[in-house]
TrEMBL record:
Keywords: Oxidoreductase. CDD domains: SDR_c. Gene3D superfamilies: NAD(P)-binding Rossmann-like Domain. It comes from Actinomadura fulvescens. This is SDR family NAD(P)-dependent oxidoreductase.
Length: 287
């Protein structure tokens, strides 16, 4: 199966009903993949599959909460029995919690760690195991280094950029970066590639659904609206992120900063972490 072309490949994408998830599902569908679009919001995933079918691809939509271990087990088993072992898994579903650490309650932490970190752990563990088992039965072809499959974990520039405004979000994304590096090392022998994708700001719905801690409901609604407007003004469409994800799979890249600010922050995090520590102290202008 030529994974570089995605022809005949099976791709699973979580959070496929919106933003990067939808754009990535469609980018893979356009290149010949059969797509499994999973989202906690079934209708939005179904809409993505309709769009994929309009591109000539096959696909199916599933409702799954990536934070729910049992639901993810059933989902992975269902994908294997209804379709087969996937060739590409994009652990993309994610949410944002913004506001100071001391205002971030236990439930806020449980929610964001559940979706952003446990969601990636479940997806990587369950589908990674399936891929490894399948590799055992495949003939070796050294010219196809990631023939065993590819796992893409959507982290963020927040994964290497500390911020007093986004402690919970940054923490989960840093964990996703490290998880991806460790997993990449482990799965290399099975010819399974792992990539952490780290976008900067992009124009999706993430701010609209964000939780702002330590403020009233009214203020939260205002901050969501402002955040949403700011992301739209950034004018970085999810389709561009999807193109970088596709490229990362084809080239089997380990870590992929996406867009200008992410590249810049990544470079600063390596050459001058002290500068990022200073930046981290600045309160967000959107507050
Ligand atoms: N938009 C940005 O600026 C930006 C930047 C860096 C990283 N990211 C990351 O990109 C990923 C995608 O976010 P987006 O910006 O496309 O946001 P989005 O809100 O447009 O899309 C997220 C999708 O995930 C789904 N989802 C949420 N919780 C879920 C759960 N528990 N189980 C299954 N599906 C769930 C939502 O229903 C939605 O369809 C996230 O991991 C996010 O942290 C976004």
């Amino acid at each position: 199966m030529p994974i570089a072309q995605f022809d005949g490949a099976l791709a699973v994408v979580t959070g496929a009903g919106s933003g990067f998830g939808r754009a990535t599902t469609l980018a893979l569908a356009e290149r010949g993949a059969t797509v499994v679009a999973a989202d906690i919001d079934l209708e939005s995933a179904e809409r993505t599959v309709v769009l994929a079918k309009a591109l000539g691809a096959s696909g199916a939509a599933y409702q799954v909460d990536v934070a729910d271990a049992g639901a993810m087990e059933s989902f992975a088993a269902q994908v294997r029995s209804v379709h087969r072992v996937p060739d590409i898994v994009v652990n993309n579903a994610g949410i944002a919690v913004a506001g100071p650490f001391l205002d971030t309650g236990l439930q806020d932490w449980e929610r964001i760690v559940g979706v952003n970190l446990w969601g990636v752990i479940h997806g990587s563990r369950l589908f990674g195991r399936q891929m490894v088992e399948r590799v055992g039965s495949l003939p070796t072809k050294p010219d196809r280094p990631n023939k065993g499959g590819h796992i893409v974990n959507i982290a963020s520039a927040a994964g290497f950029t500390p911020s007093r405004e986004l402690p919970a979000y940054c923490t989960t994304k840093a964990a996703v970066v490290m998880l991806s590096e460790c997993l990449r090392a482990e799965l290399a022998a099975s010819r399974i590639g792992v990539t952490a994708v780290c976008p900067g700001f992009a124009s999706t719905n993430i701010a609209r659904n964000a939780t702002y801690v330590g403020v009233s409901e009214r203020e939260q609604a205002r901050l969501r609206e402002r955040g949403q407007r700011a992301l739209q003004l950034r004018r970085y469409p999810p389709e561009k992120v999807a193109e970088r994800i596709v490229e990362a799979i084809v080239k089997n890249k380990p870590l992929v900063p996406v867009n200008f600010e992410s590249h810049l922050l990544h470079a600063i995090s390596r050459v001058s972490p002290a500068s990022l520590r200073l930046l981290a102290r600045i309160p967000a202008p959107l507050r």
